[in-house]
Amino acid sequence: MRMSMRFAGSIVGLIGLLSATAVFGEAIPERIFEDASDYTVRVKTRIQHAFGDDEAGAFGGTGFIVDVDRGWIVTNRHVVGESPSEVQVALRDTPYRAATKLYVDPFVDIAILETELEGGKSANLGCDHSAPGTGHPVGAYGHPWGFEYTGTQGVISGRTAKWQQVMLQTDAPINSGNSGGPLISMRSGDVVGVNTSSYNEKGAENTNFAVPIDDVCRILALLEQGKDPSPPNLPVAFFSTEDRDSVVVARVFDQQASIGLETYDKIVAAGPDLVPVKHTHDLVNALRGNLDDAELSVIRGQQELTITADIPPLRIRRGVEFAGIVMAPFNYKDRSITPAGHDIGVFTIAAGSRASSKDLKWFDLIYKVNGERVTGLEQLFVLLNDLEDGAV
Fold this sequence. Notes:
It is built from 5 helices and 23 strands. The chain has helices at residues 2-36, 77-80, 213-224, 280-287, 377-386, and strands at residues 40-47, 57-67, 72-75, 85-90, 97-104, 111-114, 137-142, 150-163, 165-170, 182-185, 191-198, 208-212, 236-238, 247-252, 266-270, 275-276, 294-300, 303-309, 320-322, 325-329, 344-349, 368-369, 372-373. β19 (320-322) and β20 (325-329) form a beta hairpin. The longest helix has 35 residues, at 2-36. The termini are far apart. Mean pLDDT is 85; it is low at 1-26.
């Protein structure tokens, strides 16, 4: 009888413990999202002259504070644009104020904004944690479809290097307006990624992507040190790395600028500490901030060798607007073997502009202006500036 009573008492105690845990567990996501509302911001962007993947117009997105003292905010590159743009940010229940683009990355979909903040706080970034594994619970926070300060939950579905850069895959819904917002661990409350995109193929469901927070942490650390976080600009193409853990050179387009790389070279480590690399993404992060006297460990045939050289940075492109045309470099790796010898071409032709009546099309390369060969963007600007007003 005593044994039965003790056993029943243990069950009652266990049920009570489980109930208390369940109630406590249900409150955690609410606290995490409430905390996120203090560091998440609204972002508005207006672009007049667009190039790259940008579109002219006005649109909105999300960002989050990473350094409240410096006024630094992280968002997506596609939210604020590669093109010249007017950007404004606002904390919850506050008016918009102007922000400047401190840094826009040409490799990962990340931009760092700077503004004067009155209020808010810095998000806790998961810089020191290992990447969340498949099944890790996460929440996407932002302003989907204009529904401000909205949180949705899901799990990490995996990681992919399908598009060169490594991305976190999640089934947490990421919709238009969520871009640039925090992907948050629902265990720790730390930000583990930057909401970026969803898979739009017909029939696709619950397939969304975020930039891992590691990329943001690396860029921020270099900016804090006063260093340029730009990725390397290597004139080579690599074999697809989707199904292999290796970085192998497929083609060298400019031997003079290739720092000594050859076709079929396998890059196994990079940077001053020769960090192992398995994807192009790893190579880029290892070389950020270390482009002068950069070191690469390479396997060539049966030989392993170290290459040391200065690597130029890959910059966000600049452009020229003239008579309704926006012209800028396409950043083709094979620019040196194009008929024009460069990759400056037509990005945008404004409807109703003088240029729209001419026989120009998007992606045309600019070869000559008034019979003079174009050799670069600065020279193109000079040639166009010398033309009579309105000439095309």
